[in-house]
Write a structure and sequence with these properties.
phosphoprotein; alpha/beta; about 15% strand; transcription regulation; Arc Repressor Mutant, subunit A; DNA-binding; about 50% helix; six-stranded parallel beta sheet; 6 strands; DNA binding
Length: about 210
């Protein structure tokens, strides 16, 4: 897997590069600012980009802007955002470019290298990897939605897990319930929200994210 890495803090950038190399992935470019990130994405067309939202020169949202522009030029270019903050607007702008191959992870919640690499690989494969806190904020935005109000507390928990990019097995593990129970809850959730049924984990995730972005 070829990766473009954008992070302005040297120690974190170097640490991420070493972690990726340890798992057999190639860092095609490691940059520390927005303009260089956009150039690298356009020139190298990596399998995935790992992008700090706030980059020089302005330290506002240059990383996000470069990623959004790159996905506009190369639809579906996989991007995993890294941020210190929960900002639903960032997730909204990234998801507006398409729900496939996107991720949003909070830096201070990355505590397991293998799990983080798994998130990167999932995004590179066209899946999603959304931090639970980000999904919680997106759900808050939909709290007054009449369809959301029909969900039970457990169904909301299942919906949140799905939006994070979890499979049925992953939802079952997170909520300490059986996969059969997960399937039953999903069977109730989708009709309530007016979502089309799907037999694949990824399509279910995309449907949920699309709903949260309406």
């Amino acid at each position: 897997m070829r990766v473009v890495l954008a992070e302005d803090h040297f120690l974190l950038r170097d640490g991420l590069a070493r972690l990726l190399a340890a798992f057999g992935h190639e860092v095609a470019a490691a940059v520390d600012n927005g303009p260089d990130l956009l150039t690298a994405l356009m020139d190298l067309r990596p399998d995935v980009a790992i992008v700090d939202v706030r980059l020089p020169p302005g330290f506002s949202d240059e990383g996000l802007r470069a990623a959004v522009e790159a996905r506009g030029r190369v639809p579906g270019l996989p991007v995993l955002l890294l941020s210190q903050y929960v900002e639903p607007l960032y997730a909204h702008e990234l998801l507006a470019t398409g729900s496939e191959g996107v991720g949003y992870v909070l830096k201070d919640r990355v505590s397991n290298g293998a799990q983080f690499i798994g998130s990167i690989e999932r995004v590179a494969g066209g899946g999603t990897a959304m931090d639970p806190e980000v999904i919680s904020q997106l759900l808050v935005r939909k709290a007054r939605d009449s369809a959301m109000a029909t969900l039970t507390a457990r169904e909301r928990e299942v919906l949140e897990c799905l939006a994070q990019g979890r499979s049925n097995a992953g939802v079952a593990e997170a909520l300490f319930i059986s996969e059969k129970a997960v399937a039953k809850h999903i069977g109730n959730i989708f009709p309530k929200l007016g979502l089309p049924p799907s037999d694949t984990d990824n399509r279910r995730v995309l449907a949920v994210l699309a709903y949260l972005e309406r």
